[in-house]
Amino acid sequence: MTFRAPRRALPGLLAALALAACAGPPPQPAPAPDMVAAPGSLFTLSPGTPVDGQLRLTLRRGQSDASGILTTNGQNLPVTVTGLTVQGGGARVDLRGQVYGLPRGGPDFPGTYNIVDAGGGSATLTGGLSLGNDNLVLILLQPPREGMVLGVAQGGMVARLGR
After folding, report:
1. Can you say how many angstroms the Cα of residue 8 is from the centroid of all Cα atoms in its chain?
2. How far is CA 143 from the centre of its chain?
3. Burial class of 93 by CB neighbour count within 10 A (0 to 12, 13 to 18, 19+)
4. Contact 113/157 with Cβ under 8 angstroms?
5. What is the pLDDT of residues 16-66, one digit of tens each?
6. How far is CA 22 from CA 10, 14, 18, 28, 38, in A?
């Protein structure tokens, strides 16, 4: 036994098949969380990238709070950070760093910074850190002496303007 579609159904069937052929592939499911590009990939420094600010911090042994100065656009802004550690230093360690991606006035500076891959910049940081926040501000911190190692607390380093 053979099934035959009525002649009047044939144009509708052909139109449906043509529409289905033009629709394209079905939507793809969202990628798994471990397949999403890491935020650190956004923090790539090209050769010759200008420094937007200088950061000077003083960290005392046994404390995770540091205070210092952010120099940017001719201003010296007081800064306080928490969640930063140093190993192999004395009772007081003075850190210096370069800040990139900082707009005029520094409103994007405050926030939580986590360790990121800064491309060519991080390869030269022996014992140093490349830290980035959600506003795409990048800090390259370097310890003052060889043998010192900088670290960040589990939740990241939190930076605030002011004391």
Report:
1. 62
2. 21
3. buried
4. yes
5. 555 555 555 555 454 433 333 344 456 777 677 788 899 999 988 777 789
6. 19, 13, 6, 17, 35
Could you give the CA distance from residue 47 to residue 123 in angstroms, rounded to a whole number? 13
Distance CA 66, CA 57 (A): 6
pLDDT in tens, 130-160: 899 988 899 999 888 777 888 888 889 999 9
pLDDT digits (tens, 9 = 90+) for 101-131: 887 656 788 999 998 875 544 334 456 788 9
| pLDDT for the residue numbered 83 | 92
% residues pLDDT > 70 (the chain): 65
Helix (H, G, I), strand (E, B) or coil at 46: coil
Domain chopping of the chain, boundaries: 51-161
**What's the CA gap between 56 and 59, in Å, rounded?**
10
152/39 Cα distance (integer angstroms)? 17
Q: Which residues contact 11 (CB under 8 A, 6 or more apart)?
A: none
Please state the pTM of the whole predicted model.
0.68
Q: How far apart are the C-alpha atoms of 163 and 80, rounded to whole Å?
A: 6
Handedness of CA 45, 47, 49, 55 (dihedral sign): positive
